[in-house]
Amino acid sequence: MATPHIGAEKGDIAERILLPGDPLRAKFVAENFLENPKLYTSVRNILGYTGTYKGVPVSVQGTGMGIPSISIYVHELIHEFGCKKLIRIGTCGGMHKNVHLRDVLIAQGATTDSSIMRSIFGPVINYAPLADYHLLETAVAKARELNKPVTVGNVFSADRFYDDDVDNDRLRRYGILAVEMETAALYTLAAEANVQALGIFTVSDHLLTGEACTAEERQTTFQDMMKVALETVIAD
Ligand code: HPA
Q1: Residue 22 in contact with ligand 1 by CB distance below 6 A
Q2: Is the predicted pLDDT of residue 221 greater than 70, yes or no?
Q3: Which position among 132, 205, 224, 236 bears the catalytic label?
Q4: Which of the four pLDDT bands, split at 50, 70 and 90, describes residue 222?
Q5: What is the architecture, at CATH level 2, of domain 16-234?
Q6: Ligand 1 in contact with 171 (CB < 6 A)?
Q7: pLDDT tens-digit series, residues 9-48
């Protein structure tokens, strides 16, 4: 049965799914990396496709930007469509001197200022959203096999893109590598449902240097991240 936000039937969506924020990146991945991709939803222009990768059924679907948006899609994908391995393929803003434009990062943990934590946990607001360890270990191994360097660590899942109040220096000092806007919710919702989740990112802009990739690059050129994510999502 279609949900309010995903116009698909049960069985249309694979248990293994990649989740870019940008629906056009979902289209790009489906058309360039999956065999026989079929569009299963275009509700609100948030595109979702299922095909196969090396013979294994894989879906790829946009989530929109920010924690409220990804939370809607991830909830429906897990609870209505049975998704079990969810890998976000996103962009992030580099914050730390150890990461550079176009680097691939994997979020071992996702620190957040989002009110989602208060609304879920009440007083236990400092819950630590973590990557699924098995997916994390697999992704690091696949990246090594593919000879793609990756950096693993803590990201900041921010509620505000435009935020003059946040103390980036303090976050940096405590090892935050990059800022993005979704992963803390993905990890928390996956933990609750006892399914596996991971966030893999390409650094699309850098807060220290002011460098940035073009919109076209953001949509299409992050192939290292996509290969690592695809090899990871089809692994046992
Ligand atoms: N901030 C938040 N999210 C992002 C950024 C950023 O600078 N770059 C890519 N996603």
Answers
A1: no
A2: no
A3: 205
A4: confident
A5: 3-Layer(aba) Sandwich (3.40)
A6: no
A7: 999 999 999 999 999 999 999 999 999 999 999 999 999 9
For residue 86, the CA-to-ligand 1 centroid distance in Å is 21
Query: Measuring from atom 6 of ligand 1, which residue has the nearest CA?
Result: 93
pTM of structure: 0.97
* Residue 205 is a catalytic residue: yes
What's the 3-state SS for the chain?
CCCCCCCCCCCCCCCEEEECCCHHHHHHHHHHHCEEEEEEECHHHCCEEEEEECCEEEEEECCCCCHHHHHHHHHHHHHCCCCCEEEEEEEEEECCCCCCCCCEEEEEEEEECCHHHHHHHCCCCCCCCECCHHHHHHHHHHHHHCCCCEEEEEEEECCCCCCCCCCHHHHHHCCEEEEECCHHHHHHHHHHHCCEEEEEEEEEEECCCCCECCHHHHHHCCHHHHHHHHHHHHCC
**Where in the chain are the domains?**
16-234
Tell me the CA–centroid distance for residue 231 and ligand 1, in Å: 25
Say if ligand 1 is within 6 A of residue 205 CB.
Answer: yes
Tell the residue nearest (CA) to atom 9 of ligand 1: 92
Per-residue pLDDT at 178 exceeds 70: yes
pLDDT of residue 162: 95
Half-sphere exposure of 86 (CA within 13 A, CB side): 35
CA–centroid distance, 65 to ligand 1, in Å, is 10
